[in-house]
Amino acid sequence: MKNMLKKALLPALALSLMFVIPAIATESSSTTTTNTTTGNTQASIAAASSPSISFQIPMHDYCSVDNPFDFGFQISNANSGTANITLFLYQKDGSILQDEGISSAGLESTIIPGRSLTLAGNATAFYHMNFGNHNKCDQRIYSGKIVVNEGQASLLAKGWVYRRIGSETKLSELITINQNKSFDLIK
């Protein structure tokens, strides 16, 4: 009985390894061209082969003058050379918010959504907007995209949504892009 199992299992096992080993070799050779230090190879592959990266903005909640949203965003150039990029912020109907941001209480706005921005090496640009007091609630944004306009850019980006409910409760949600690790965009 043992001999019969060995005769049946050994060829089946050898045959299955023939199909598994080439798949592993092909897969690992394609990931060696990516920056594996990011810890997220799939995200690195997607970002490196694309001229843009998209993200969600958590704003689907109650909004009014008494319950406003503040949105903050920053993009940093992770290289010493310049990066030519554009930040797009999309409203619920897919239209692009093109309002200049507001600056208050130390929060700056140096980005105008939908417009090209040349970011110096290792520099950071900011965007801040209030929905409920400065902009109307129906102008809220729900997704965004960073696009490289020419060449290549290595960037870091993150944001936050801060919400006040009445005068007491304050809530904050982070917008994490590529697990807060740098990403490369190529056009």
Summary keywords:
4-stranded antiparallel β-sheet, 187 residues, alpha+beta, 5-stranded antiparallel β-sheet
Q: Can you walk through the features of this model?
A:
The protein has helices at 2-31, 41-48, and strands at residues 52-56, 69-77, 83-91, 116-119, 124-131, 141-148, 152-165, 169-176, 183-186. Strands 2, 5, 7, 8 and 9 form a five-stranded antiparallel β-sheet that branches. A four-stranded antiparallel β-sheet has the order 1-6-3-4, with no helix packed on it. The chain is elongated and about 45 Å long. Residues 9-48 have low confidence and may be disordered. It is α+β, with helices and mostly antiparallel strands and 187 residues long.
Blueprint of the fold:
Layout: H1 2-31, H2 41-48, E1 52-56, E2 69-77, E3 83-91, E4 116-119, E5 124-131, E6 141-148, E7 152-165, E8 169-176, E9 183-186
Antiparallel strand pairs: 1-6, 2-5, 2-7, 3-4, 3-6, 7-8, 7-9
Concise overview:
This protein is α+β, with helices and mostly antiparallel strands and 187 residues long.
Sheet of most strands: 5 strands, antiparallel
| Number of helices in the DSSP assignment | 2
- What is the helix content? 10-25%
Order of helices and strands: HHEEEEEEEEE
**End-to-end gap:** 63 Å
Rg result = 23 Å
Which percent range describes the beta-strand content?
35-45%
> Regions with pLDDT < 50 over 5+ consecutive residues?
9-48
Roughly what is the average pLDDT, rounded to an integer?
80
